[in-house]
TrEMBL record:
Protein name (database record): histidine kinase
Topology with respect to the bilayer: Multi-pass membrane protein
This protein's UniProt keywords: ATP-binding, Cell membrane, Kinase, Membrane, Nucleotide-binding, Phosphoprotein, Transferase, Transmembrane, Transmembrane helix, Two-component regulatory system
Compartments reported by the entry: Cell membrane
SMART domains, alphabetized: HATPase_c, HisKA
InterPro entries cross-referenced by the UniProt entry: HATPase_C_sf (IPR036890), HATPase_dom (IPR003594), His_kinase_dom (IPR005467), HisK_dim/P_dom (IPR003661), HisK_dim/P_sf (IPR036097), Sensor-like_sf (IPR029151), Sig_transdc_His_kin-like_C (IPR004358), Sig_transdc_His_kinase_DctB (IPR017055)
Keyword Electron transport recorded: no
Originating organism: Janthinobacterium fluminis
Pfam families associated with the record: HATPase_c, HisKA
Length: 637
């Protein structure tokens, strides 16, 4: 029967912790990717919102700047045209060499310039030669200058209003030029030009907090609140544009190099995010780069690009802060998720353990009942086995006793011839002596008859002793152990083989240490063993020239050793090996049964002793009975 507790546990109990699987790794990867994506999106959208806000603000500011510029300039739009209303101007263009007219027009222009708060007003003929100018008094006067190469002059001479920003060729002062043809009766006589200084606007911008720039249609920045970017370009100039600018001397000898953008990204609505490394930006260190957003407004008809710069640092910082915040929030929720998951797992674990416990508990009762009934069955079968065993033991015991008895009877049978002889002799003597007694009584020899009868009585007593001894030997022995006198037991045994000792001429010797020795055994059985050993010794010496049987009784610690030695041939190795085997005999059939030593060995073992055999150095065989020493009269059960 086997305990099957393991098989009764619910299958779910066997589910161990799953190893780190590929699916789990993928799930973790997805969580991480999702985390990063969310953080990126938060960053992106926050930056986008901030940029949108900046863009909206920038667009408003641009409107303000554009309208203030337009307000400043549009009042000059019609000023050149109005000059043709002056008759002196017309006459001067008809007769340019009249000094009086030149002086009159100069004064008129000077006055007009002062009133209009422009930089200069001048009149040129159809060849572009300037004949009168508001700045006629100064040494940088425009009088005599040829302006035909200037685009505004060319436009005006073509009949369209000339509009042009450029650096003055005479005094190198930048200004915005308004030019218009002077007509009489529909015929162009020359052109009038008004130059307006718009640098004052730039001064106001520099003082303000905003960063604004004004670039021409080619992208050349000519007005800016960032001084270092003045006369820089938004992009490298095409070669033909560079050549044109050199030819028109629009920016005189300025180099017009592009602003070094580290990156440039278009946002739509004319907005761009640019990154620059330029100390020109206020607050930027020489080697740092900063991102700014540029917003563009094209101002028609002048074709100028109005650019508003917004610093993206703030937008970036708020995007970063939002990203960090989202990191923290996501991290918190992730932790919360793990915590809740852990808790749920722990709870599920607990629940499973509880279920298993309940299952085990439910099973336990069944198992206990099953086991109890199994145990009961076992106990029953064991008790049956025990009963059978004890019966068998009892039978064995009985059989053994029968065997011992049979052995004993066998010994008696073997000795029957000598016993018969032993009894026949006194019987013959008895018959003779009783006959003699009758004769003596008849003859009246009473004394002799009396002696004769006394001898008869002695012989009868002796015969009684022999039969008594036989009776004692033949009786069934008890199994209780007592304190037995070893010399007495030896004498009793010897009595049964005495006749053979005499007939076979065997020298017998016995040595007992001390007066008497007692051992724990049963006398009748010990005598049976001794008779066996003596008979075997006598049998072995049958063909020997010298026949000696010696019995030595010694003590060794708490043991008594009885050694029976003979002068026979001793024990061969083969015989020694099988000596105590039942039915082993070397004697002829009908003589030996092969049970003597087997029974003797068992009897000795029942005494708690040992029977062993060896060949002593002096020759022959030696059998030693080892018994537990006992005190006299001691009785053991
Ligand atoms: P049995 O005497 O009927 O043969 P035993 O069991 O008494 O049976 O003896 C078994 C054998 O042991 C004997 O046949 C004999 O060969 C051998 N044996 C016993 N005693 C002696 C002895 N003293 N010397 C030599 N052989 C012996």
């Amino acid at each position: 029967m086997t305990m099957n507790t393991g098989s009764k546990i619910a299958p779910r109990a066997r589910q161990g912790a799953a190893p780190w699987s590929g699916r789990q790794s993928m799930a973790w990867g997805a969580v991480l990717a999702g985390f990063l994506l969310v953080v990126y999106l938060v960053y992106f959208w926050t930056e986008r919102l901030a940029i949108d806000k900046l863009q909206a603000g920038g667009a408003q500011r641009l409107e303000v700047y554009v309208s203030s510029l337009e307000n400043a300039l549009e009042k000059y739009d019609f000023l050149p045209k109005t000059l043709e209303l002056n008759k002196d101007v017309i006459r001067l263009l008809q007769t340019p060499d009249d000094p009086a007219l030149v002086a009159a027009v100069n004064q008129y222009l000077e006055q007009m310039n002062a009133q209009a708060k422009s930089t200069a007003i001048y009149i040129s003929d159809l060849n572009g030669i300037t004949h009168a100018a508001s700045n006629w008094r100064g040494k940088d006067s425009f009088i005599g200058d040829n302006v035909s190469f200037r685009p505004y002059a060319q436009d005006a001479l073509r009949g369209t209003p000339g509009r042009f920003y450029g650096v003055g060729t005479t005094n190198l002062e930048p200004g915005y030029f308004f030019a218009h043809g002077i007509y009489q009766d529909g015929k162009m006589l020359g052109l009038a030009t008004v130059k307006v200084n718009i640098e004052s606007l730039e001064k106001r911008w520099v003082q303000g907090a905003d960063k604004v720039m004004l670039a021409d249609e080619h992208g050349v920045i000519f007005l800016t609140s960032v001084p270092a970017w003045k006369y820089r370009t938004l992009a490298p100039l095409a070669p033909e544009v560079g050549a044109l600018l050199t030819q028109t001397r629009q920016y005189y000898s300025h180099k017009l190099e592009p602003i070094p953008f580290l990156s440039d990204r278009r946002l739509g609505n004319g907005a761009r995010v640019i990154t620059v490394r330029d100390q020109a930006l206020p607050g930027a260190a020489a080697k740092t780069s900063s991102s700014v957003m540029t917003q563009l407004q094209l101002k028609s008809p002048r074709n100028w690009q109005f650019i508003y710069l917004s610093d993206l640092l703030q937008a970036r910082s708020s995007a970063q802060a939002a990203a960090v915040f989202s990191c923290v929030v996501l991290g918190f929720f992730l932790l919360l998720f793990f915590y809740v998951r852990q808790r749920r797992q722990a709870l599920a674990h607990k629940l499973r353990a509880k279920e298993q416990l309940q299952y085990a508990y439910d099973n336990l009762e069944t198992m206990v009942a099953e086991r109890t009934s199994e145990l009961n069955a076992m106990t029953q079968s064991l008790s049956q086995e025990i009963a059978v065993r004890s019966q068998a033991e009892h039978k064995l015991h009985l059989t053994q006793n029968e065997l011992f008895q049979a052995g004993k009877m066998a010994v008696l049978g073997q000795m029957s011839a000598s016993i018969t002889h032993e009894l026949n002799q006194p019987l013959t003597a008895l018959r003779t002596m009783s006959d003699n007694a009758v004769i003596l009584l008849e003859r009246g020899r009473l004394d002799d008859a009396k002696n004769n009868l006394a001898t008869i009585s002695q012989i009868a007593a002796r015969m009684g002793a022999i039969t008594g001894q036989l009776k004692v030997f033949a009786r069934k022995s008890t199994t209780s152990l007592t304190s037995v006198s070893i010399p007495t037991a030896i004498s009793n045994a010897l009595f049964l083989v005495e006749r053979r000792l005499q007939v076979e001429n065997v020298h017998f010797a016995m040595h007992v240490c001390g007066d008497d020795v007692f051992a724990l055994c049963e006398s009748n059985r010990l005598e049976q063993v001794l008779v066996n050993l003596f008979a075997n010794a006598l049998d072995s010496m049958a063909g020997a020239s010298r026949r000696a049987l010696t019995v030595d009784v010694t003590r060794q610690d708490d043991k008594v050793l009885i050694c029976v030695s003979d002068s026979g041939p001793g024990l061969s190795d083969e015989v020694r090996e099988r000596l105590f085997e039942p039915f082993f005999t070397t004697k002829p059939q009908g003589v030996g049964l092969g049970l003597g030593l087997a029974i003797s060995e068992q009897i000795t073992r029942q005494f708690g002793g040992i029977l062993r055999a060896d060949n002593p150095p002096g020759g022959g065989a030696r059998f030693t009975i080892e018994l537990q020493i006992a005190q006299q009269e001691e009785k053991h059960v």
